[in-house]
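This entry is listed below:
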Amino acid sequence: NELVLHLWVADSLHVGRFLAILAFAVGLGSVLSLLISLITGPKAQKWVTGILTLILAVIYLVEYFLFDAYKTFMTLAAVANGAGGVATGYLETVLSLLANNWWRIVLMLLPVILYLIFAGSRKANWKARTALGVSAVAMYLLGSGAVWGLTNDLSMLNPGCAFDTAVRSFGLNVALGLDAAQQMGFSQQEMFVPLGTLPQTTEPVQS
């Protein structure tokens, strides 16, 4: 869903950003799979996975429709605060968007439907959980490396970044995380410090 959203809204395909978004998306999938594996019962895990995937698909669709209508992405808080007004004042517009983009809705929801129909129920062991944890760390490091080495977006990878910019540069899941960090008061703290901004010492080296 993350890659599909990026391809739908990107003006042009930037290899570095695409790789970063891909890595962050896989990292999120690994984290969620790890957490869900801790739930007792394979069937419960399957249904929780299906419900969570459905919720995420709806969030991605809502963000796409907002972008299609207003050419900008909005935080979930802004969406929630404006939902009532949109439902009452722009119902016809909303229905038109849904009708004209039915194939996008099907495409986003298809993975959920296929998963619930065909996915089997398997009991996770600690070996699998360890692999998921390692995968999550590796993917987030890879995504961060792509941002650092293949784009000019490193200075924006912090909670103070505008939500719309964060979605375009790092993907929706990272943007939601940065927005949550901003709401918790971390807006001035960067996740990464560019090497050129490290303070230089003026004290002589003691031999």
